[in-house]
């Protein structure tokens, strides 16, 4: 199901805690907040506000002490 990026709640380089809001998306007229699966530093936002994304698309890339992970 495609979704639209309504708002990026973080910026690149920002440190976030597990459960912090990252991105607000809209799909089927419903807004959903995507939350951080981990504590870490946001390496890259994969999309800007207004972008349309497919299901399973990477939204945020993280840096952590051991490897880069994604949400």
Give the % helix: under 10%
Q: Which CATH class applies here? A: Mainly Beta
Let me know the number of strands. Answer: 8
Number of domains: 1
- How do the strands line up in the largest sheet? 4-3-1-6
Low-confidence segments, given as residue ranges, are none
Whole-Å distance between the termini? 17 Å
- Percent of sequence in beta strands: over 45%
> Structural class given helices, strands, pairing?
mainly beta
| CATH homology-level superfamily | RNA polymerase II/Efflux pump adaptor protein, barrel-sandwich hybrid domain
Basic shape: globular
At CATH level 2, the architecture is Beta Barrel
CATH topology-level name: OB fold (Dihydrolipoamide Acetyltransferase, E2P)
Arithmetic mean pLDDT: 91
Protein name: Lipoyl-binding domain-containing protein
Domain Lipoyl-binding: 1-63
Pfam family, one: Biotin_lipoyl
Keywords: Biotin
């Amino acid at each position: 199901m495609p979704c639209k990026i309504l708002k990026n709640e973080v910026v690149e380089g920002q440190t976030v805690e597990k459960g912090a809001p990252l991105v607000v998306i809209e799909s089927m007229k419903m807004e959903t907040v995507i939350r951080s699966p981990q504590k870490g530093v946001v390496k890259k936002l994969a999309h800007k506000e207004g972008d349309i994304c497919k299901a399973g698309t990477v939204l945020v890339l993280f840096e952590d002490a051991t490897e880069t992970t994604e949400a």
